[in-house]
Amino acid sequence: MLALSDKVVQRWKIPDSLSGIRADHYLVYHIGRISRSKAQKVIASGDFRLEQQLLKPSRRLKAGDWVELWRVPPDSSDIEHLTIPILYQDERILALNKPGNIAIHPSARYLYQTVTHWLKTHFPGKPIHPCHRLDRETSGILLCSQNRATDSALKQAFMKGQVEKTYWAFVEGHLDREIDCARPLCLQGGRGKVAIKMIEDSSGFASQTYFRPLRYDPMTDWTLVECKPKTGRQHQIRAHLALEGFPIVGDKLYSMGEDFFDAYTRGVADLSQLPLPRQALHARSIRFELQSQIYSLECSHPFFDAFLTPNPDEPSTQLVMDALPGLAETDGLS
Q1: Which of 73, 125, 180, 276 maximizes the CB count within 10 A of its CB?
Q2: What residues does 217 pair with on adjacent strands?
Q3: What pLDDT was estimated at residue 293?
């Protein structure tokens, strides 16, 4: 076993929303691609600590606690192939078009192949930081701050619901009506196989997402849906769509199920079962006000755009299938 001095340390502060969470559940939640049993082994090895103190998996963490994960860098530091287009830049913000399958922050599997490391490499010495989160498999607009004041202002705006976000998603089935979903959500934790799954719970956090169908294709039985989250819970769009009976195409957890997701995290899942190589969710546009200036940014994606054909009566199946290689190339998939 390597000494701690030979490893890379990551430090995280427990947010108010996760106060009281078990140490093993938090590790699963934050890393996202690790089973609960693996998290318990990491804790038992002493690689996950509370302010340098050894933990038990059942230890309850409090808001404001600082935890540390000591680990060996798992991925290559070569990011020359990693391309992240810049949508907009001024003295305050940097807006990126994040490809799918690129993590924002370091995790157990990714240290260098991340947005934060890309930012450090391409903007050395500059305090540029992502202001919100997108799932690793979700593509689209990612806002970054270029100074401390902007970082604080944007994060406050996100917390207060003052940032208007629009996503596009392919969902399974024919969604033929608008839905204003207000199901409260919370972490599943120990109530199921996958602790990081968000489930409906009357005692959970208030969550609201508005859905509007844009186009249905009977050949694939998919609907392109516009999603407008009013709150910002983890997996909110994915969980709400699944709870309404229209899971996102390619979602390894909410569509494929907990058994598949567990197998996927262990590297033994049959990937041929997936209809798409990643979940079909894209952050399409964002609108907000910063220092009396209105920002309105939009980010297209060829795979999603291909679904909207000029003739509304023409099945778009072939266009979507033709665009699939574009999804793979854009998102670094093979």
Answers
A1: 276
A2: 222
A3: 93
Res 323: pLDDT? 52
CB 209 within 8 A of CB 199: no
Residues 6+ apart with CB under 8 A from 228: 164, 165, 166, 167, 209, 210, 211, 212
Residue ranges with strand state E in the chain: 8-13, 48-50, 66-71, 86-89, 93-98, 129-130, 139-145, 164-172, 179-181, 185-187, 198-200, 209-217, 222-229, 281-290, 293-298
Give mean pLDDT in consecutive 10-residue pieces for the chain, a chain of 334 residues.
Answer: 55 88 89 78 84 86 89 60 90 95 77 86 92 93 96 93 96 97 93 90 96 92 96 96 97 95 83 91 96 94 77 54 51 38
For position 329, what pLDDT does the model report? 42
Which candidate, 8, 57, 11, places its Cα nearest to that of 30?
11
Tokens of 178: 């608008």
User: How do beta strands 66-71 and 48-50 pair?
Assistant: antiparallel
Known catalytic residues are 135
Q: What share of the chain is helix, strand, coil (3-state, %, to 5)?
A: 25, 30, 45
* Among the listed residues 174, 135, 154, 160, the one whose alpha carbon sits nearest the alpha carbon of residue 254: 135
The tokens describing 181, both together, are 């979903």
Phi, psi (degrees; rounded to nearest 5) at 137: -85, -5
Cα(189)–Cα(147) distance, rounded to whole angstroms? 36
Give the pLDDT score at 73.
55
